Structures are given as structure tokens and as C-alpha cells.
Amino acid sequence: MQRARSFFARSAWRCRRGFASEQWSSLRQEAGISGVSAPSPSQLGQVVRLDELLKKTPEEVAEIWLGFHADEKGGRVGSVLAAEEYCKFVSRAKESPMFVLPLAKPSGYETLLVQCQLPYVLITGLEEFKRYGEGAPPYLTLTHYPELLDSHGLAVVRGDIIHEKGMNRQEARTTMELVRAFYTSDEDYSHVHTFNHKPAAFDFGVLLRKLNLAA
């Protein structure tokens, strides 16, 4: 992990022009999230009364799930994915498990490191990763629940805010939707694929312009 920290300390700024393939390969191998204690259970039945939820229509399920995660004091955000969208997300998360995302901040933006190990997606600050490597405290953890795919044609997602100083609820909601967009939109996913498979061609500046964070 020291090699990964050293890599970021030396050359995080290079993401505008592209990572060197051999450096990125080393980072990808060492920045896994194995061993991270997720705040939410991996099974939907441990979160809700699944037998009762199965009696609801897809529209009711979505309303209940989103309503439950709308509590401003809850420290969580929620989302619902259609079956086709979820299956695309799963396939691409396995194919391209890591990404970097710029998140708008009052002073500009912060670069986030996204790591997929389904059903979880771990999101932390790039600067935090530079300091602590795989021990970096996560800002947000997304947990995906596919139990309703066959019966209702949807999957539900819970986002747990772990580090409130790193990310507030609005930022968590924005980040969750950005992850969804970049992994399920064919146009947006091209950036994720390039980052994972052709790192030398990855241009972080394109993301900044796309998200209106740079001229």
C-alpha cells in the first residue's frame, strides 16, 4: 500500500493528462475495499420487512424506499434502479471497478475515489487515500439490494454517510447519482472504461468540463 500512497503523492495531478499504465495497474491491485466494515447489511431482509414489501406495487416500493431515506437527520440517502439499469451497473462495476469523480464544493471541487465491490461501492476523498491508502476513511458507502428484481423489476440502493465532514447529505445524493450516471449511461461510461482499461488516455479535464467545473 505504501507504493500506492507514493504514486498518488507524486502524481495525482497527472489525472488531467492520464495515468501511466503500470502505475495504475499497481494502484488498482492495492486499493481494494476488502475488509471494510459496511454500515448497512448486505441483505435487504435485514433492513426492511421483505415479506411486507413484496406485497406492494413497484411504484409503492419506490415511494416507500425513497420516503424512508428522505429524513434529513437519518444520515442516509436512497435510490431506485430499474432492472435493466441495475444489471448494466453490475456488469460495468465488475468490468471497471474504480473511477475518480470531481464533486463540486464551495471552494471549487474535490476529487473522489470510487471503488466497486458489489453489493458495496466505497467512496472516499482522493486526498484521504493519498494519506491513508486502503485505510482511508470512507465518505459514503452505497449498498445495492437486488432482491426485488424478479418480482418488481427494480433494485434499491442505500447510501450511508460515514464521514460528515467530508460529505453532507446533498453532496451524498449528488455523488450517488453521478456514480449511477457514469456507470449506466453509455456515453458517460466511456470515461470509466478508459480510466480502468486505457489509463494513459484518460483526461480528467474532460470530466471537469462535463460537470461544469472548469471552463
TrEMBL record:
Its main location: mitochondrion. Keywords: Mitochondrion, Transit peptide. InterPro entries: ATP11. One of its GO terms (biological process) is mitochondrial proton-transporting ATP synthase complex assembly. Transmembrane segments: none annotated. One of its GO terms (cellular component) is mitochondrion. It is found in: Mitochondrion. It comes from the Eukaryota. Pfam families: ATP11 (PF06644). Belongs to the ATP11 family. This is ATP11 protein. It comes from Gonium pectorale (Green alga).
